Amino acid sequence: MMRILFFILGLLLSTWSYAQCSICTKTAGDMGDKVATGLNLGIVYLAFLPLTIIGTIGYFWWKRYRKEI
After folding, report:
1. Tens digits of per-residue pLDDT, 26-59?
2. Please, which residues have CB within 8 angstroms of residue 35's CB and are 6 or more apart in sequence?
3. Contact call for residues 11 and 55 (beta carbons, < 8 A)
């Protein structure tokens, strides 16, 4: 149970890291803070649905096969 909590916490904290390539970061930084914030939120927005789907499938798979052991 503790592993799952750490996994979920890690996923939530990773959305605050706002990963970008260095060129995009420099270009967005040169344009201003508003553009950089918009780029960061766009990356999180695009990553949210696939990560949610993968996480849901993984959770149900783990829950199903855990009962067999």
Report:
1. 777 788 888 878 887 888 888 888 899 999 999 9
2. 28
3. yes
Length of the chain: 69
Structure tokens at 19: 């990963």
Nearest one of 14, 62, 59, 60 to 40, comparing CA atoms = 14
Which helix (H) or strand (E) segment holds residue 67: the answer is none
Task: Enumerate the domain spans of the chain.
Answer: 33-69
Both tokens assigned to 2:
């503790």
* 3-class state of residue 18 by DSSP: coil
Q: Output the pTM of the full model.
A: 0.50
